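task queued by scheduler; priority normal; single chain, no ligands, no partner chains; default sampling; output format set to structure tokens
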Amino acid sequence: MCAARPRKDPRPGGFVSSALRHEGAHDPIACIDGKDRAAASRLMRPEEPDPMISAHDNDPTARAWAIAAHEYRRERWRNQLGWTREIYAQPTPPAHARAGVPEWDWRLSIAEIERDAAFSSFPGIDRELVLLSGNGVRLRFDDGEVHALHPPHDRLRFAGERGVTGELIDGPTHDFNLMWRRDRFDAALWHRPLVGPMVLFVDPAATWAVHLIGGRAAFGAESGLAPLATGDTAILQAGRQRQRHVLEGGGETLLVRLTPLAQA
């Protein structure tokens, strides 16, 4: 919960909140409770440049933009058996293009599963599927594994090459779909409630995506971003310098961090 007071992480990259300690994962998200509202205010309106965490407009290579839900592009699945709404796809530089691999490094979308259907195959891609709405979907893999995603927001990570069929448990579902090239990026995903301010630290060359499952939220005025409503997404890219973004509001979020691999 964002009400939990964060403790400083000794490693670069942010904070570890008590809500994530049981997962054993590094959490560069600071959730600030009511006692720290003054600190949050200072973070949203820094008086002096910070050599470690710079304001967005101090780094011309940084980018941040919001995508309204009605702007997502609806298209057929790769195998033509369903529909998806593409939120954003990061193009692959020509020098890293590979035959048989999609022309993007990573992609965010919302799959619309309206009937039982085989998923598309994505060689070289890892993916994570999160149930957003509906009564659940059963993932039946060709190797015999079966895994059900139940409400409210169960999720599963698996290789894009694996043959899998989605079987609806009780009616259609919408599912958040994170995909990335495993030879070029590492990805992490968190499901987080938003209760008051949340601070995101974006390391150089990394990208964060904030998908608002429900509620309303707004970034600090210095970001220049439009407020987020249910279903909207913000993309935060750091460029050469580490960035800090403060998000405040109420609701539920999916937070995605994409980090380029050193050898890529």
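post-processing summary
- The chain has two domains: 7-67+184-260, 72-181.
- Residues 7-67+184-260 form a domain with the Jelly Rolls fold (CATH 2.60.120.10).
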